[in-house]
Amino acid sequence: MTATRSDRAVAVTGVGLVTPAGAGTEETWQRVCSGLPTAAEDPELADAPVGFSCRVDGFDPRGHVGGSQPWRYDRFTQFALVAAREAVRDAALDPDTWDGARVAVVLGSAAGGVTTYEEQHHRLRTSGHRAVSPLTLPAFLPNMAAGQLAIDLGVHGPALQTGTACASGATALVTAAMLLESDACDIAVAGGSDAMVTPMCATAFARAGALSRGHGDPAGASRPFDAARDGFVLAEGAGLLVLERTADAAARRASPQAVLAGHGSTTDAHHAVAPQPDGRCLREATQQALARAGAAYGDVDHVNAHGTGTPLNDSTEAAVLSELFGPEGPAVTSTKGVTGHTMGAAGAVEAALTVLAVRRQTVPPTANFHRADAGTSGIDVVHGAARQRPVELAVSNSCGFGGHNVVLAFAPAPTVRGARR
């Protein structure tokens, strides 16, 4: 592979995850590598057309978020706070001592505090306006997770919210990299969070024909690239990464986990919810990411695919991957087989898992994949068990309603002499 362009490469120095696979990075990684799905019947969706989901099981706001009033935050903000704190600790940074004016927060979300909105709307309709909480707006506005992260971490630099549907978390990472490249900050805490496992969201996705009907087995419902796929499983969670310029990370003797070597962003301009049939713009986003990384198609060892489990997405994405990389191409996985689709968090959650794949030289399996069909047979889908293999360059794909495409390219981090964590 051509040497990563040092003027553009950004170090990933910290990772934090809250997912259905676990409230923490290591727990999530181990569950994802086990290939054990998290989908289960969901009592809160008992009256919805599809009654199962992938929830963050056992998440306790008081225990995980802390403080005396964690209920003031919507669930998507609670997830973001926990993941961001883990990422900052993992980066060996201390918000009490950093220069907050040189730190940025960029948080992607597809829906913001939709749980709060649904609850408060129900109160308004059933009990009148006096039953509506005065904290409704601070809880549900999409920017509030970024704002609350800035308050929690003492950040005085840019605090931004990105909204590109299911690509929101990946868009946040691209935005953060651009802030670093433009010298608008020295540290960026960036990623995505969503908590859309609600009756309204579940019903809307089901009515749109996007959700799996379960095959009579919720745990087997999320089937990325499988011939029997029939939709995604609704999930929730957050993924936050700490990004720094590689020189700055080296100067403080940080131990990066990987480098964000390149990124590409395009828009289909084709249809509100369906992918471009020929995948041209997803292909162009991949080309942009590899060009920025100074890499060729043959350099890519692993792809963490968008892989939702919907018939159209998977066949389109598989066709693009097959065209770009050929039949002997990279090891492909969709971790949504385990986690379900975490919506606006997905791009960041999967970027974090791609970082871990690079760092640990391990490709997780695609849960519930049994056989390909004509639309997905041209790629090497890792399944059954995690695959130990060299991963010198990996890409993570994200696509969203509205035609958004984001591709992130990650490479191993250079060894830092005297590094500390």
From TrEMBL:
Ketosynthase family 3 (KS3) domain boundaries? 7-412
Supply the alphabetized keyword list. Answer: Acyltransferase, Transferase
Record-linked InterPro entries: Beta-ketoacyl_synthase, Ketoacyl_synth_AS, Ketoacyl_synth_C, Ketoacyl_synth_N, PKS_Beta-ketoAc_synthase_dom, Thiolase-like
Q: Does the keyword Disulfide bond apply?
A: no
Gene3D superfamilies this protein is in? 3.40.47.10
CDD domains, per database record: KAS_I_II
* Keyword Transferase annotated: yes
Its family? Belongs to the thiolase-like superfamily. Beta-ketoacyl-ACP synthases family.
Q: What is this protein called?
A: Beta-ketoacyl-[acyl-carrier-protein] synthase family protein
